[in-house]
């Protein structure tokens, strides 16, 4: 197996690992108010998140930045909480696309730092980290798209089969994630 395929597989497996469900929750609340017809906007939104985490993942892998991971582990659920709260009071059409894309990009920076320790442990003392870094990021994006696919599939099921209102569905998912991310943030407060 080539280095590319190894790191690609590690990337998508890492994002889909249920032990690291915080990233799954973020992607869930990022896209829970979208439907299949919004796939282009949703793809841009997830790509903004990927760009953000790719930047900090690269900076950390090249040892350009180093941060206290206890703060990153605390900030990750805070980003989830803020994104879920942003979903609550407004109808989807009233939400600013620019704000949502900016949030995805900026919060992606934080999530990328969360991935960095895992990637650095995988890379060890490899001389050339460009291919592993690139393939890991592509794997992460692939994993995120799998999450998006299942969220959209579940949303379509709820909206079309069970006739749940899109606003109510988004409110339900976002509220559940608010509860989970709030508890995660409290548990991870750096002391």
TrEMBL record:
Q: Does the keyword Transmembrane helix apply?
A: yes
Q: Is the Zinc keyword given for this protein? A: no
Task: Output this protein's name.
Answer: HupE/UreJ family protein
Segments spanning the bilayer are 20-36, 43-65, 71-88, 100-118, 138-157, 169-186
**Family matches, as InterPro entries:** Put_HupE_UreJ (IPR032809)
| Swiss-Prot/TrEMBL keywords | Membrane, Transmembrane, Transmembrane helix
């Amino acid at each position: 197996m080539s280095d590319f395929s190894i790191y690609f597989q590690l990337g998508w497996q890492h994002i889909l690992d249920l032990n690291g469900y915080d990233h799954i929750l973020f992607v869930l609340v990022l896209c829970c108010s979208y439907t299949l017809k919004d796939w282009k906007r949703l793809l841009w939104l997830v790509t903004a998140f990927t760009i953000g985490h790719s930047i900090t993942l690269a900076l950390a892998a090249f040892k350009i930045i180093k941060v206290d991971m206890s703060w990153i582990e605390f900030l990750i659920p805070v980003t989830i909480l803020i994104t879920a709260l942003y979903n609550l009071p407004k109808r989807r059409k009233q939400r600013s696309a620019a704000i949502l894309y900016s949030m995805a990009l900026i919060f992606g920076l934080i999530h990328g730092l969360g991935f960095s320790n895992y990637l650095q442990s995988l890379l060890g003392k490899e001389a050339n980290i460009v291919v592993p870094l690139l393939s890991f990021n592509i794997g992460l994006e692939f994993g995120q798209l799998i999450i998006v696919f299942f969220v959209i599939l579940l949303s379509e099921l709820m909206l079309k089969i069970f006739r749940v209102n899109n606003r109510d569905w988004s409110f339900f998912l976002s509220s559940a994630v608010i509860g989970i991310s709030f508890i995660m943030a409290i548990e991870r407060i750096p002391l």
